[in-house]
Specification:
The protein has 133 residues and is mostly beta strands. The chain contains one helix and ten strands; from the N terminus they run E-E-E-H-E-E-E-E-E-E-E. The strands form two sheets. It has a seven-stranded mixed sheet.
Amino acid sequence: MKVDGRCHCGQITYEAEIDPQRVAICHCTDCQMLTGSVYRVSVQAPREKFSLLSGQPKVYVKTADSGTKRAHSFCPDCGTPIYSSAVQDPPTYSLRVGCLRQRAELRPLRQNWCDSALPWAINLGDVPRYNRQ
């Protein structure tokens, strides 16, 4: 599936081809911190199917508990997380689904690191809903 995305301010734009069957939620505490939310939703794009069209992301390298380093790329102006990847010669880019124009079509099909999930974040069906604030 062809997708395109951008940061909130529009400085960074990109396009990619992804497999919509690979959309996943991550509940790890690093993803909670790096998104400022309760989980991260992402989809993998192979390096050869990803094109940065405009802008240059700023990169923050984090070290996981395992010792693995990951490069997290975000807009230097608005701070929108764009993707993460291996630090050197990445085979794939983990695109942040919230930045993709096609996000409504990209339903997650699996959840990882559920041991770290916040209990209230798993099922929000009983939380009152409003169409606008």
